Amino acid sequence: MVSSGAMDREAMDSHVTGYAEILRSACATGRRLTRAELESRRAQGERAAEAGLAWRALIRDHLAAARDLPPHLASGSTEHLLAAVEQAVDAFAEGYERAQHHAIRQEEAARREFIDDLLHGRSDLGRLAERAERFGLRLAQAYAVAVATGPEPYGDGDRVARRIEDSLLARFGNRRILLATKDGRLICVAPGDEPEVLTHFAKQAYAATDGGRVGIGRSHQGAGGVVRSYEEARNALDLAERMGLDGPVLRAADLLVYPVLTRDRQAMADLVESVLGPLAEARGGARPLIDTLMAYFDSGCVATEAARRLSLSVRALTYRLERIHSLTGADPADPLHRYTLQTAVIGARLLGWPANES
């Protein structure tokens, strides 16, 4: 029985086959390698890469083969020998790199196709689960998804994306984590019982893009759960944009009240129009007064803090609050009225009301 070590050695040796003969011929006349000889070395390099042979060992074998040339050839012209070795190894490296780049492009294409199918719930679940194993995922388990956006769209092979992936691998190793780009965003799929993975991903994405944002969905079971978590992460980012929410990391679990409020959009629209509609009668329109209510509620109903956020005096802020009370009949300082007003303001943010004002 042939040992695995012997088989590896045989594979290594096969990729220097013909190399010594090329060196002998080139050294004998001092000529450069022919096109056919260079192409044979490129082909050997491609086969070596496809066989998964280590680059360092391959170079060592090439140098050893040159050293083992008959003394009279090697000593005839060191310059000719070194030139031939340089050409041969360079061609071999070109083939090796070409095969690696091709493999990387194939892997990226397969990952992109898998991510598309996974996040949109396409493909047969059984087939999807088989493909998931290739990328380290076990779809019978629970997963959570994070979606990162940056000042510039993420692309395949993106330098920032590679840096984030390297950081995750260095910190967590191969823990069934999948990173990919989609629609200019960076996607991270991680086990649902390891929330620290997505937390680290969010920190790295924010730091790497100098101000990017990350939405994190909740953990859900199975392939359908990945789709659901992905949608939650995307919705968190969209919601933050519409609501003007602060913070680089937005967790769907912390924003559940907003989907509840907008589940009946018509009822919310009626509430906004009924409660805030009278503000349109104010000089300058409803927008300045709605901004005042937003700042007032966001600051915990502390007038001095709200005034600071709006770059107003406390007196000017108080006047605006009184004007709101006068127009709507609802007093922001009254707990019951405050709840109605705040709900209506949230609805106005979600619905983009009033749409006709800048």
UniProtKB/TrEMBL annotation:
InterPro entries: CdaR-like_regulators, CdaR_GGDEF, PucR_C-HTH_dom, PucR_C-HTH_sf. Residues 289-345 form the PucR C-terminal helix-turn-helix domain. Residues 121-239 form the CdaR GGDEF-like domain. PANTHER family: CARBOHYDRATE DIACID REGULATOR, DNA-BINDING TRANSCRIPTIONAL ACTIVATOR ADER. Belongs to the CdaR family. This is PucR family transcriptional regulator.
